[in-house]
Write a structure and sequence with these properties.
elongated; 19 helices; four-stranded antiparallel sheet; alpha/beta; binds zinc ion
Length: 575
Amino acid sequence: MPSKRRILITSALPYINGIKHLGNLAGSMLPADVYARYQRLQGHDVLYICATDEHGTPAELAAQAANVSVQDYCDEQHQIQRDAGDGFSLSYDWFGRSSSEENKKLTQHFAQVLEEKGLIEERVSQQVYSVDDGRFLPDRYVEGTCPHCEYEKARGDQCDNCGRLLDPVDLKNPYSAVSGGTNIEIRDTAHLFLLQSKMQETIREWVEASKDWPQLARSIALKWLDEGLRDRAITRDLKWGVPVLGADGNPRPGFENKVFYVWFDAPVEYIAATEEWAKANGGDWERWWRTDKGAEDVEYVQFMGKDNVAFHTVSFPVTIFGSGEPWKAVDKLKAFNWVTWYGGKFSTSQKRGVFMDQALDLLPADYWRWYLMANAPEGSDAAFTWEGFQASVNSDLANVLGNFVNRITKYTVGKFDGALPATGTPGEDEAWMAAELKASLARISEHYEAMEFRKAAAETRALWAAGNEYLTRAEPWVKYKNDVDAAAVGVRTGLNLVAIFAIIAQPLIPTTAKSILDTLGIPDGNRNWPSADDGNLLDAMPHGMPIQAPPVLFQKIEDAMVEDWTKRFGGEEND
Ligand SMILES: [Zn+2]
């Protein structure tokens, strides 16, 4: 038995505003969940943390549009995202909120120590001020004409037409997104700046020494470093957010109407959410995060889409390394490309793509989990198509796994009185299967350890297929006519395979796997990951134990369903 590891897992925090689509799910939360489940089955000590990212202008504006307070808006949206996560069986140990007291305190703490280290300074900069609204207009609060492409509804932080990042003062013909007022002035105001340029060498040394990062994450981090880290404003003229304090703990003079920028406080929530978890469950959060308090042996793994890599490899490390305090930094970082909708973007307004809540109205979570991980956007972007989804579910789940389980359990009920047969001696076919099993289990583990989810799913399917191949070779149904004992060996081996197939399916399709294992009556303590070196795997279940057949595990996706869903959510014809 390998020694017990302590594995801290975080997935990029979903923004509070709006339900996420399948691509968001596949690019961070789902693979993090699969990885957490796999490592728990290995018997390791796993802590999987996520939270909603609740500050910033989109939340304020959405609350205003809905005519509710930002707090009420976030309360409601947090619950919606929590429910969607539950629906997809995301096994968070804690799903926190970046608006928590814990995050406020910790964000303020980081700002204070960074300032003490000379990494934060006040600078006066020019901001868009609305005379009609009597306030500064940060980011999305101001709209106008894009200086690059002349698009007339560009937002202050980014142009949706050409995609360029903008500074609100660069907009032509600016107007307030709140009141529409065009009485706009550019005024001086002070903000806190994080002096990232001073941390350039520290961050580069750390990135270059981080050997466990996949290529995608590494290359994005180095590209940012090559371009040179720029000092960044970390405060905004907003009410909703973490208040800016002075050294005496009171509101910082001149910053009474400002808060920390959402990009500064959001990653701190990884730590603060662990504190929230500890308060609720009596755990020790510092044991996971402070290397002077026991986190020295923690493996910290982060999951995120490629757009988030820079924040995790550069911005957040500036905060934690800059503090000079012994915080745990990421060890392994897994970044994903995009899941596209037939090669294009998901869009609510254009009815392109399925969002998390809609997906669960169509089919159970396991169908989506399987397809999204079997087609994970790892080497490049991956297009979701109904046709691919249909083929994958019908072939991999319904035919390869579902039929195998049904065929062998039903046969046991019909021909062996619903009891695991005890007679007969294993022969050549069983030896072949044992060798396949041993090699395949080792490969699946390798892929999970390397966080190669596409390969892990493909190898899982390959093992299920080997089980079908075994039944074709062993032919218990043919042998039964002349030699019941010979048939019994095949059925016994097949039933043990059913249990193994369900056990190894737990990270990917947890609900179905549980249903198979429950039907078989496999005790919870026997559901851990099988050891490839265990020579007794194909004869592990007690002889004579009662066997029932589970109900049909997977419904096949018919062409008519694909046609209907294409009409509702878009498909090939929309291109
Ligand atoms: Zn533009």
